[in-house]
Amino acid sequence: MVLLKGLDRRGFIFYTNYESRKGRELAESPHAAAVFWWDKLGRQVRVEGRVEKISARESDEYFEARGRESCLGAWASRQSKVIPGRKTLERRYGEASRRFEGSRVPRPPYWGGYRLIPQSMEFWQGRENRLHDRIRFTRRAGSWKRERLSP
Predict the structure, then answer these.
(1) Of 59, 87, 116, 144, which residue has the fewest beta carbons closer than 10 angstroms?
(2) CB neighbours (10 Å) of residue 10?
(3) Comparing C-alpha atoms, which of 11, 107, 109 is closest to residue 51?
(4) 57, 86, 130, 148: which one is catalytic?
(5) How far is Cα 50 from Cα 23, in angstroms, rounded to an integer?
(6) Digit-coded pLDDT (tens) for 31-57
């Protein structure tokens, strides 16, 4: 699970620790899927594609726009790593706070953004009798192929 933080003509952007489980898995296999679900509308969109790191400049710009506490938290957390207890996390946060006291908090080298570049997008609309609408668009040679799928 990720928090979608941006969308541009190239794809869907999210941020995380490159050394987290998510980051390591993407390094091994840079492919992912994202599902956006709207319960009240009975709709979802599934996006599948290749994932690439965004530029350091893009990651820096986003990091600088975050609140100071969130930036310090990125330095304190070794996302997905086992720690002895909460006090360890709080100690690391305090260390980061003292280290960057009176100055801006730079982006950690192990933290940044990714872009999910869509190769396939499926739009699903729930219908009565489980006769749902499913429309899939697949990127082929610079254009999108549209197909209707059976529910």
Answers:
(1) 87
(2) 12
(3) 11
(4) 130
(5) 14
(6) 999 999 999 999 999 999 999 999 999
Backbone φ and ψ for 48, nearest 5 degrees, come out as: -125, 145
pLDDT at 2 over 90: no
Separation between Cα atoms, residue 60 and residue 62, nearest integer Å: 5
- Per residue in 77-133, pLDDT tens? 989 899 999 999 999 999 999 999 999 999 999 999 999 999 999 999 999 999 999
Nearest in space to 17 (alpha carbons), one of 84, 148, 110: 110
| 87/7 Cα distance (integer angstroms) | 37
Whether 121 contacts 47, CB under 8 Å: yes
Domains parsed from the chain with CATH numbers: 6-149 (2.30.110.10)
130 is catalytic: yes
- Give yes or no for a contact between 111 and 16, defined as CB atoms under 8 angstroms apart: yes
- Residue linked to tokens 């699970």: 1
